[in-house]
Every structure is written in C-alpha cells, then in structure tokens.
Amino acid sequence: MNVLGIESSCDETSVAVISNNILTANLISSQDFHSKYGGVVPELSSRAHLQIIVPLIKDALAKSNLQLKDIDLITATAGPGLIGALIVGLTFAKGLALSLDKNYVAVNHIEGHIFSGFLMEEKPEFPFLALVVSGGHTLLLLVEDFMRIKKLGSTVDDAAGEAFDKVAKMLGLGYPGGPKIQQTALNGDPDKINFPVADLKNTYNFSFSGLKTSVLRYLQKNYIEKEAPGKDLADVAASFQNAVVKAIVKNTEKALNNFEVNSLCLVGGVAANKAIRSAVSQLGKKYDKKVVIPAMEFCGDNAAMIAFRGQKLFEQGITSSLDVSPFPGLSANAFS
Q: 50: helix, coil or strand?
C-alpha cells in the first residue's frame, strides 16, 4: 500500500509518503517569516500553504519513485488547527482522492501526534502513557491500542507551548518562544526563582496560566532591560522552564503509579525541548518503562504522522466522506 499524507494545520506545510509500511518521504516547509510578526498570521499562513503544496507533493512522489496513480490512500489533517490553513490541505487531498478515485481518510491532528512514536525504529508497546505537549494542547492519555484512547488529564487554561510563547514575549526573546526560552535557559540557574507549579488535586490536569502570571509579576517587580538582557533574564527563563518540567513530571509520575503500562511516550512540538525530553527519560528509567520520544522531525507538525495514523484507521475499515468532512474527534469511544 502507498499512502500519501498532507499536513497543513498551522505554519508548516508537509507531505509524506509511506510505501509498504516504510516512510519514503517526509517533506516539511516551515513558514519562518511569521517570526517578524511575533506569531502566526492566519491569512499569510493559508497563502503560503497554497504556494508550496503542489511542489511538495511532486517532490515527495519523486523521492519515493512513485506517481500519483500509484497512491492507494490519501490522508490529510482535518483539525484542530487554523481553519484557513486546514482548508488548503484538506480540500487539496479531497480533490486528489476524487480525481484519482482513491480512498480518503481525514485525520485528527492530535491522533497523529499520539502515534508519532511508531515512526521510530523502537516503537511504543501497548498500553502506553502518551504525554502530548504542544502549542495548543497539553494532554495525558492512556493509549490501550490503536483505537482505544482514554484521556486522563488536559490543561484547564494555557497549553505548555502557549505559555512558552507568552513568557518569551514578556522577556523580549521573540517568536517562536520554545526554542528561545530553551537557548536562554542554558545560561541560567533553574533553581534561582521558585515559580509555582499548579496543584489540581485528585486530577491529572495541568495549569500554566498561574505560572505565566507569576513570571509577569516577577518581571514587573524586578525590571529587566530587554535591549541588554543580563544574567537575571537567563535565570527567569531557566526557572520558568524548570517549573513547566516539574508540572509535567508530577502528573506523569502520578499516572505511572496508578496505571499499568509498558511504555511512556512524549510527543508534540514541545517534545523537542531538551529539558523536558531529559526529565521524561529519567522518569522512564525510574519506573523501568520504555521511553519513546520521536526524532525532532516528528515532534513538530509533519505529514508522516498523518499518513501513519490515516493508514491505521483505514486498516480498521474507516474512510471519510468527500462531501462533508466534520472535524474528526479522537477516534476512541472512551475518549471524552
């Protein structure tokens, strides 16, 4: 089977091909120009997707030594994401499926991340805990198999990635915030400032809004020159990052104590953060669990995870309509 995947949920256009269960192409075009605006501009994002999607598909097929007629299944991200950006990839995928008379599967973007660990050589073993940490989501999930996912906890306010972006803006570091905070934190003391970690008792939920506000109050009380940041700025970045790590580890460790799992998976764009990757790896060692963290190209938005998830849904007999495609919720019946 040859599967074509298309991802266009935000500011990366990506096209991937999985041929006979082997990833033969995973091309990603990042819209770096958004940095000068301090965040993603939806209209500009949509236009950029339109400009690059056809060349990417041609290049992915060429890299895989395939032609469009050789594709058996077409998959595309159908949400969540920026509606204009999503429409570009989604309608293009539908058009291809219709013109080629091929099967089509709409994929939930978060499900793509959940199973992105299966793109690695060492794959998760069911059941596993999935920690999804991205710009728009922070989720802790119990994944029993490819069709059964139970939500244990989520963020009650800001997602971790959103908090990184907002704090980076406060510090005058620019966008995207995650890499900027990580780089600045390298020269700081993570224990210098005791920023709070929310304790939502008797739940696995996360909260980063209070942490973000605490950073703001600290900056207001201890003014930092943005034009010439000193050592204190690095300490703020390191201490903030450390608080995020503590929050993630606390809930994940609680789940490891309460659920019998074989693996621990860290996925999503913020999974690229080295401090978080290290903390989750150490947690796996502590509880003797296999830890699977996707390579950097599979942490951010990518079409390989969409193609993989779409193929697994298709193997379960699931296809999507070309007429009306409502937002696909997470597939599991147990998910709420």
A: helix
CATH of the domain at 12: 3.30.420.40
Question: Are 255 and 306 part of one and the same domain?
Answer: no
Domain-embedded: residue 163: yes
**Distance between CA atoms of residues 247 and 178, nearest Å:** 16
pTM > 0.90: yes or no: yes
Q: Which two tokens mark 29? A: 């075009």
What pLDDT, in 10s, does the model give residues 250-294? 999 999 999 999 999 999 999 999 999 999 999 999 999 999 999
Q: Is residue 203 part of a domain?
A: yes
Phi, psi angles (nearest 5°) of residue 290:
-65, 130
Find, among 128, 133, 124, 132, the residue nearest to 148 by Cα. 128
Tokens of residue 241, six digits: 């990052």
CA distances from 325 to 93, 105, 111, 162, 319 (A): 12, 10, 17, 28, 11
Residue 180: count of CB within 10 angstroms of its CB? 21
Domain span at residue 164 reads: 123-293
Task: Give the Cα separation of 322 and 105 in Å (integer).
Answer: 9
Give the number of other Cβ atoms within 10 Å of residue 149's Cβ: 22
